[in-house]
Protein backbone atom coordinates (compact mmCIF):
# COMPACT_ATOMS: atom_id res chain seq x y z
CA UNK A 1 0.00 0.00 0.00
CA UNK A 2 1.42 3.37 -1.06
CA UNK A 3 2.15 5.81 1.78
CA UNK A 4 2.21 9.60 1.33
CA UNK A 5 5.34 11.64 2.02
CA UNK A 6 4.27 14.68 4.06
CA UNK A 7 5.72 16.82 6.80
CA UNK A 8 4.42 15.61 10.21
CA UNK A 9 4.08 19.22 11.36
CA UNK A 10 1.44 19.79 8.67
CA UNK A 11 -0.84 17.19 10.24
CA UNK A 12 -0.39 18.80 13.65
CA UNK A 13 -1.08 22.25 12.15
CA UNK A 14 -4.27 21.09 10.42
CA UNK A 15 -5.57 19.44 13.59
CA UNK A 16 -4.84 22.44 15.81
CA UNK A 17 -6.22 24.81 13.17
CA UNK A 18 -9.54 22.95 13.43
CA UNK A 19 -9.44 23.07 17.24
CA UNK A 20 -9.21 19.28 17.56
CA UNK A 21 -7.10 17.08 19.82
CA UNK A 22 -5.44 13.76 18.98
CA UNK A 23 -7.91 12.05 21.32
CA UNK A 24 -10.89 13.55 19.48
CA UNK A 25 -9.66 12.06 16.19
CA UNK A 26 -8.25 8.81 17.59
CA UNK A 27 -11.26 6.68 16.68
CA UNK A 28 -11.11 7.66 13.00
CA UNK A 29 -7.31 7.84 12.81
CA UNK A 30 -5.81 5.48 15.38
CA UNK A 31 -2.27 6.07 14.06
CA UNK A 32 -2.52 9.87 14.10
CA UNK A 33 -0.13 10.22 17.02
CA UNK A 34 2.48 8.19 15.12
CA UNK A 35 1.86 10.22 11.97
CA UNK A 36 2.47 13.46 13.82
CA UNK A 37 5.72 12.11 15.29
CA UNK A 38 6.89 11.01 11.84
CA UNK A 39 6.98 7.33 12.88
CA UNK A 40 4.33 6.32 10.34
CA UNK A 41 2.75 7.75 7.21
CA UNK A 42 -0.89 7.80 6.03
CA UNK A 43 -2.17 6.48 2.73
CA UNK A 44 -3.63 8.95 0.24
CA UNK A 45 -7.17 7.88 1.16
CA UNK A 46 -6.40 8.36 4.84
CA UNK A 47 -4.90 11.79 4.14
CA UNK A 48 -7.97 12.87 2.17
CA UNK A 49 -10.23 11.66 4.98
CA UNK A 50 -8.09 13.54 7.51
CA UNK A 51 -8.35 16.71 5.39
CA UNK A 52 -12.15 16.45 5.41
CA UNK A 53 -12.23 15.83 9.16
CA UNK A 54 -10.10 18.93 9.84
CA UNK A 55 -11.78 21.08 7.12
CA UNK A 56 -8.37 21.57 5.47
CA UNK A 57 -7.74 21.85 1.71
CA UNK A 58 -5.83 18.64 1.01
CA UNK A 59 -3.21 20.51 -1.01
CA UNK A 60 -2.16 22.39 2.14
CA UNK A 61 -1.02 19.12 3.70
CA UNK A 62 1.69 18.70 1.05
CA UNK A 63 3.34 22.03 1.92
CA UNK A 64 6.71 22.12 3.67
CA UNK A 65 5.45 24.48 6.36
CA UNK A 66 2.08 25.87 7.45
CA UNK A 67 0.73 28.80 5.41
CA UNK A 68 -0.10 32.13 7.04
CA UNK A 69 -3.88 32.40 6.79
CA UNK A 70 -5.62 35.73 7.13
CA UNK A 71 -9.26 36.68 6.97
CA UNK A 72 -9.81 38.18 3.49
CA UNK A 73 -11.60 41.25 4.90
CA UNK A 74 -10.46 43.90 7.43
CA UNK A 75 -10.48 42.33 10.89
CA UNK A 76 -11.54 44.58 13.79
CA UNK A 77 -12.11 41.78 16.33
CA UNK A 78 -10.52 42.32 19.71
CA UNK A 79 -10.60 40.79 23.18
CA UNK A 80 -9.80 43.39 25.85
CA UNK A 81 -8.74 45.60 22.92
CA UNK A 82 -6.11 43.04 21.81
CA UNK A 83 -6.40 41.89 18.20
CA UNK A 84 -7.69 38.34 17.64
CA UNK A 85 -5.57 36.23 15.28
CA UNK A 86 -5.56 32.70 13.81
CA UNK A 87 -9.00 32.49 12.13
CA UNK A 88 -10.68 29.09 12.27
CA UNK A 89 -11.56 27.15 9.09
CA UNK A 90 -15.23 27.76 9.92
CA UNK A 91 -14.77 31.54 9.90
CA UNK A 92 -12.67 31.50 6.73
CA UNK A 93 -15.10 29.27 4.84
CA UNK A 94 -18.07 31.40 5.94
CA UNK A 95 -16.44 34.55 4.59
CA UNK A 96 -15.52 32.81 1.31
CA UNK A 97 -19.09 31.50 0.85
CA UNK A 98 -20.56 34.96 1.46
CA UNK A 99 -18.10 36.53 -0.99
CA UNK A 100 -19.15 34.04 -3.67
CA UNK A 101 -22.84 34.79 -3.10
CA UNK A 102 -22.20 38.53 -3.13
CA UNK A 103 -20.22 38.29 -6.37
CA UNK A 104 -23.09 36.40 -8.03
CA UNK A 105 -25.70 38.87 -6.79
CA UNK A 106 -23.60 41.88 -7.86
CA UNK A 107 -23.44 40.49 -11.42
CA UNK A 108 -27.18 39.78 -11.31
CA UNK A 109 -28.01 43.35 -10.25
CA UNK A 110 -25.73 44.76 -12.95
CA UNK A 111 -27.53 42.64 -15.56
CA UNK A 112 -30.87 44.11 -14.49
CA UNK A 113 -29.54 47.67 -14.73
CA UNK A 114 -30.25 48.68 -11.13
CA UNK A 115 -28.65 51.83 -9.73
CA UNK A 116 -26.16 51.79 -6.84
CA UNK A 117 -27.68 52.09 -3.37
CA UNK A 118 -27.31 55.67 -2.17
CA UNK A 119 -27.00 54.85 1.54
CA UNK A 120 -23.84 52.76 1.11
CA UNK A 121 -20.94 55.02 2.06
CA UNK A 122 -23.24 57.94 2.87
CA UNK A 123 -21.76 58.42 6.37
CA UNK A 124 -18.33 59.03 7.84
CA UNK A 125 -16.97 57.90 11.18
CA UNK A 126 -17.25 60.93 13.38
CA UNK A 127 -20.57 62.08 11.93
CA UNK A 128 -23.15 63.02 14.53
CA UNK A 129 -24.39 59.76 16.06
CA UNK A 130 -27.97 60.89 16.65
CA UNK A 131 -28.36 62.25 13.11
CA UNK A 132 -26.85 59.16 11.51
CA UNK A 133 -28.98 56.77 13.57
CA UNK A 134 -32.10 58.76 12.70
CA UNK A 135 -31.30 58.53 8.98
CA UNK A 136 -30.70 54.80 9.24
CA UNK A 137 -33.93 54.31 11.18
CA UNK A 138 -35.92 56.13 8.48
CA UNK A 139 -34.20 54.27 5.64
CA UNK A 140 -34.79 50.84 7.18
CA UNK A 141 -38.27 51.76 8.37
CA UNK A 142 -37.49 50.71 11.93
CA UNK A 143 -39.80 53.17 13.65
CA UNK A 144 -39.76 53.23 17.46
CA UNK A 145 -43.54 53.49 17.81
CA UNK A 146 -44.12 50.59 15.44
CA UNK A 147 -41.70 48.47 17.45
CA UNK A 148 -43.52 49.29 20.67
CA UNK A 149 -46.70 47.81 19.22
CA UNK A 150 -45.00 44.48 18.41
CA UNK A 151 -45.63 41.58 20.83
CA UNK A 152 -41.94 40.78 21.49
CA UNK A 153 -38.47 42.06 20.68
CA UNK A 154 -37.76 38.81 18.79
CA UNK A 155 -40.57 39.79 16.43
CA UNK A 156 -38.92 43.20 16.15
CA UNK A 157 -35.65 41.47 15.21
CA UNK A 158 -37.37 39.49 12.44
CA UNK A 159 -38.95 42.69 11.14
CA UNK A 160 -35.59 44.48 11.32
CA UNK A 161 -33.97 41.76 9.18
CA UNK A 162 -36.85 41.85 6.69
CA UNK A 163 -36.68 45.64 6.38
CA UNK A 164 -32.91 45.68 5.88
CA UNK A 165 -33.19 42.94 3.25
CA UNK A 166 -35.99 44.83 1.50
CA UNK A 167 -33.84 47.97 1.49
CA UNK A 168 -31.20 46.13 -0.53
CA UNK A 169 -28.85 44.67 2.07
CA UNK A 170 -28.23 40.92 1.78
CA UNK A 171 -28.77 39.88 5.41
CA UNK A 172 -27.55 36.34 6.01
CA UNK A 173 -28.05 34.75 9.42
CA UNK A 174 -26.69 31.27 10.08
CA UNK A 175 -25.15 29.36 12.94
CA UNK A 176 -23.34 26.84 10.74
CA UNK A 177 -20.91 26.85 7.82
CA UNK A 178 -23.02 26.81 4.66
CA UNK A 179 -25.68 24.19 5.39
CA UNK A 180 -23.37 21.81 7.27
CA UNK A 181 -25.00 21.41 10.67
CA UNK A 182 -21.91 19.61 11.98
CA UNK A 183 -19.82 22.77 11.56
CA UNK A 184 -21.35 25.09 14.12
CA UNK A 185 -20.00 28.64 14.25
CA UNK A 186 -18.50 29.94 17.48
CA UNK A 187 -19.90 33.30 18.67
CA UNK A 188 -16.79 33.61 20.82
CA UNK A 189 -14.73 33.89 17.63
CA UNK A 190 -16.95 36.35 15.76
CA UNK A 191 -20.47 37.73 15.87
CA UNK A 192 -20.81 39.11 12.39
CA UNK A 193 -19.28 40.96 9.49
CA UNK A 194 -20.18 43.44 6.79
CA UNK A 195 -18.98 43.44 3.18
CA UNK A 196 -19.73 46.87 1.73
CA UNK A 197 -20.68 47.19 -1.93
CA UNK A 198 -22.70 49.81 -3.79
CA UNK A 199 -24.85 47.20 -5.54
CA UNK A 200 -24.77 44.22 -3.20
CA UNK A 201 -23.99 45.19 0.42
CA UNK A 202 -23.91 42.11 2.64
CA UNK A 203 -24.25 41.56 6.39
CA UNK A 204 -23.63 38.19 8.01
CA UNK A 205 -24.93 37.49 11.51
CA UNK A 206 -23.67 34.52 13.53
CA UNK A 207 -26.90 32.64 14.16
CA UNK A 208 -25.27 30.51 16.87
CA UNK A 209 -25.22 33.64 19.05
CA UNK A 210 -28.19 34.52 21.24
CA UNK A 211 -31.10 36.28 19.53
CA UNK A 212 -30.45 39.21 21.83
CA UNK A 213 -26.87 39.54 20.60
CA UNK A 214 -27.90 39.09 16.95
CA UNK A 215 -30.08 42.18 17.15
CA UNK A 216 -27.19 44.45 18.10
CA UNK A 217 -24.83 42.76 15.62
CA UNK A 218 -27.16 43.58 12.72
CA UNK A 219 -27.35 47.24 13.71
CA UNK A 220 -23.57 47.45 14.19
CA UNK A 221 -22.85 45.88 10.80
CA UNK A 222 -25.41 48.12 9.09
CA UNK A 223 -23.47 51.08 10.48
CA UNK A 224 -20.42 49.69 8.65
CA UNK A 225 -22.49 49.53 5.44
CA UNK A 226 -23.48 53.20 5.91
CA UNK A 227 -19.76 53.96 6.21
CA UNK A 228 -19.08 51.94 3.07
CA UNK A 229 -16.47 49.95 5.01
CA UNK A 230 -16.02 46.18 5.01
CA UNK A 231 -15.23 44.74 8.45
CA UNK A 232 -15.21 41.63 10.61
CA UNK A 233 -16.39 42.71 14.05
CA UNK A 234 -16.95 41.53 17.58
CA UNK A 235 -20.11 43.59 17.98
CA UNK A 236 -21.24 43.59 21.60
CA UNK A 237 -23.65 46.09 23.07
CA UNK A 238 -21.48 46.52 26.17
CA UNK A 239 -18.20 46.95 24.29
CA UNK A 240 -16.44 50.31 24.43
CA UNK A 241 -13.73 49.73 21.79
CA UNK A 242 -10.55 51.76 21.44
CA UNK A 243 -10.88 51.59 17.64
CA UNK A 244 -12.60 54.79 16.48
CA UNK A 245 -14.72 53.14 13.76
CA UNK A 246 -15.88 50.30 16.01
CA UNK A 247 -16.74 52.70 18.82
CA UNK A 248 -18.73 54.91 16.43
CA UNK A 249 -20.61 51.89 15.00
CA UNK A 250 -21.52 50.74 18.51
CA UNK A 251 -22.80 54.19 19.43
CA UNK A 252 -24.88 54.42 16.24
CA UNK A 253 -26.32 50.92 16.76
CA UNK A 254 -27.36 51.73 20.32
CA UNK A 255 -28.88 55.08 19.28
CA UNK A 256 -30.76 53.44 16.41
CA UNK A 257 -32.53 51.10 18.83
CA UNK A 258 -33.02 53.41 21.79
CA UNK A 259 -32.53 57.17 21.34
CA UNK A 260 -30.56 58.41 24.32
CA UNK A 261 -32.88 61.36 24.92
CA UNK A 262 -35.84 58.97 25.09
CA UNK A 263 -33.98 56.61 27.40
CA UNK A 264 -33.17 59.41 29.83
CA UNK A 265 -36.85 60.34 29.93
CA UNK A 266 -37.98 56.72 30.41
CA UNK A 267 -35.30 55.39 32.77
CA UNK A 268 -36.30 54.99 36.44
CA UNK A 269 -33.18 54.57 38.63
CA UNK A 270 -35.36 53.96 41.70
CA UNK A 271 -36.40 50.53 40.39
CA UNK A 272 -34.26 47.37 40.81
CA UNK A 273 -32.00 46.85 37.78
CA UNK A 274 -33.59 43.49 36.86
CA UNK A 275 -37.09 44.92 36.84
CA UNK A 276 -35.99 48.03 34.94
CA UNK A 277 -34.17 45.98 32.30
CA UNK A 278 -37.27 43.90 31.64
CA UNK A 279 -39.59 46.90 31.64
CA UNK A 280 -37.49 48.89 29.17
CA UNK A 281 -36.92 45.85 26.94
CA UNK A 282 -40.71 45.50 26.66
CA UNK A 283 -41.09 49.23 26.18
CA UNK A 284 -38.55 49.63 23.37
CA UNK A 285 -38.85 46.06 21.97
CA UNK A 286 -35.12 45.51 22.15
CA UNK A 287 -33.02 42.95 24.00
CA UNK A 288 -32.06 43.42 27.64
CA UNK A 289 -28.43 43.62 26.47
CA UNK A 290 -29.19 46.78 24.50
CA UNK A 291 -31.12 48.17 27.47
CA UNK A 292 -28.10 47.66 29.74
CA UNK A 293 -25.90 49.54 27.31
CA UNK A 294 -28.33 52.47 27.14
CA UNK A 295 -28.70 52.62 30.93
CA UNK A 296 -24.92 52.99 31.03
CA UNK A 297 -25.00 55.68 28.33
CA UNK A 298 -27.66 57.51 30.31
CA UNK A 299 -25.40 57.53 33.37
CA UNK A 300 -27.20 54.81 35.30
CA UNK A 301 -24.29 52.33 35.40
CA UNK A 302 -20.53 52.71 35.58
CA UNK A 303 -18.41 50.88 33.02
CA UNK A 304 -17.52 48.20 35.57
CA UNK A 305 -21.17 47.79 36.60
CA UNK A 306 -22.18 47.54 32.93
CA UNK A 307 -19.71 44.74 32.21
CA UNK A 308 -20.68 42.76 35.31
CA UNK A 309 -24.42 43.05 34.59
CA UNK A 310 -23.88 42.34 30.88
CA UNK A 311 -21.96 39.10 31.53
CA UNK A 312 -24.62 37.92 33.98
CA UNK A 313 -27.34 38.63 31.45
CA UNK A 314 -25.49 36.84 28.64
CA UNK A 315 -25.20 33.74 30.81
CA UNK A 316 -28.91 33.92 31.68
CA UNK A 317 -29.89 34.22 28.02
CA UNK A 318 -27.63 31.34 26.98
CA UNK A 319 -29.30 29.11 29.57
CA UNK A 320 -32.77 29.73 28.15
CA UNK A 321 -34.21 26.89 26.04
CA UNK A 322 -33.94 27.46 22.31
CA UNK A 323 -37.04 27.34 20.14
CA UNK A 324 -37.56 24.85 17.35
CA UNK A 325 -35.84 25.35 14.01
CA UNK A 326 -39.13 26.17 12.29
CA UNK A 327 -39.84 25.65 8.61
CA UNK A 328 -36.70 24.40 6.82
CA UNK A 329 -37.22 26.52 3.72
CA UNK A 330 -37.91 29.72 5.63
CA UNK A 331 -34.80 29.02 7.70
CA UNK A 332 -32.76 28.44 4.55
CA UNK A 333 -33.94 31.74 3.08
CA UNK A 334 -32.78 33.48 6.27
CA UNK A 335 -29.41 31.74 6.06
CA UNK A 336 -28.67 33.11 2.60
CA UNK A 337 -30.88 36.26 2.58
CA UNK A 338 -34.37 36.11 1.17
CA UNK A 339 -33.39 38.71 -1.44
CA UNK A 340 -30.48 36.56 -2.64
CA UNK A 341 -32.48 33.30 -2.51
CA UNK A 342 -35.35 34.75 -4.54
CA UNK A 343 -33.03 36.18 -7.20
CA UNK A 344 -30.95 33.01 -7.47
CA UNK A 345 -33.93 30.63 -7.73
CA UNK A 346 -35.64 32.81 -10.35
CA UNK A 347 -32.45 33.19 -12.37
CA UNK A 348 -31.83 29.44 -12.25
CA UNK A 349 -35.37 28.57 -13.33
CA UNK A 350 -34.94 30.99 -16.26
CA UNK A 351 -31.81 29.11 -17.33
CA UNK A 352 -29.39 31.96 -16.62
CA UNK A 353 -27.59 30.17 -13.79
CA UNK A 354 -26.59 26.50 -13.84
CA UNK A 355 -28.38 24.31 -11.31
CA UNK A 356 -24.97 23.05 -10.23
CA UNK A 357 -23.85 26.56 -9.29
CA UNK A 358 -27.14 27.43 -7.60
CA UNK A 359 -27.05 24.28 -5.48
CA UNK A 360 -23.47 25.02 -4.44
CA UNK A 361 -24.28 28.57 -3.32
CA UNK A 362 -27.38 27.43 -1.43
CA UNK A 363 -25.67 24.42 0.10
CA UNK A 364 -28.21 22.00 -1.38
CA UNK A 365 -27.53 18.60 -2.92
CA UNK A 366 -30.89 18.01 -4.66
CA UNK A 367 -32.73 20.01 -7.31
CA UNK A 368 -36.02 19.17 -5.60
CA UNK A 369 -34.89 21.06 -2.51
CA UNK A 370 -34.25 24.16 -4.62
CA UNK A 371 -37.73 23.86 -6.14
CA UNK A 372 -39.29 23.58 -2.67
CA UNK A 373 -37.41 26.72 -1.63
CA UNK A 374 -38.76 28.46 -4.71
CA UNK A 375 -42.31 27.46 -3.79
CA UNK A 376 -41.88 28.69 -0.22
CA UNK A 377 -40.74 32.08 -1.60
CA UNK A 378 -43.58 32.29 -4.08
CA UNK A 379 -41.21 32.05 -7.04
CA UNK A 380 -42.44 28.64 -8.20
CA UNK A 381 -46.07 27.56 -8.26
- Strand content bin: 5-15%
Series of H and E elements = HHHHEEHHHHEEEEEHEHHHHHHHHH
The tally of domains stands at 3
Report on the biggest sheet: 4 strands, mixed
The gyration radius over C-alpha positions equals 23 Å
Spans of at least 5 consecutive residues with low confidence: none
Number of E-type strands: 8
Mean pLDDT: 90
| Total of DSSP H or I helical runs spanning 4+ residues | 18
- Helix proportion of residues, in percent? 40-55%
**Alpha-beta classification:** alpha+beta
Oligomer: single chain
Q: What order do the strands of the largest sheet run in, or round the barrel if closed?
A: 3-7-6-8
| Coarse morphology | globular
Q: What's the end-to-end separation, in Å?
A: 54 Å
Can you tag this structure with a few keywords?
434 Repressor (Amino-terminal Domain), 18 helices, alpha+beta, two-stranded antiparallel sheet, 381 residues, globular
Amino acid sequence: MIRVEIQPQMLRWARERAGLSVAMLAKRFPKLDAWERGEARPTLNQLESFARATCTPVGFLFLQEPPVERVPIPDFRTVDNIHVGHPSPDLLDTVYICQQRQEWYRDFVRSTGEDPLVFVGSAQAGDDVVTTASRMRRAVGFDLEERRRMPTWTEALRRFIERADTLGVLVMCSGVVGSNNRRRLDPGEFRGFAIADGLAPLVFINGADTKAAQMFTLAHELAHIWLGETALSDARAAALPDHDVERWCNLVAAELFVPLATMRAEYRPDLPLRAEMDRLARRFKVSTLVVLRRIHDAGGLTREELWAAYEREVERLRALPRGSGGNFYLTQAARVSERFARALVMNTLEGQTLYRDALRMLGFSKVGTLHELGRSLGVLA
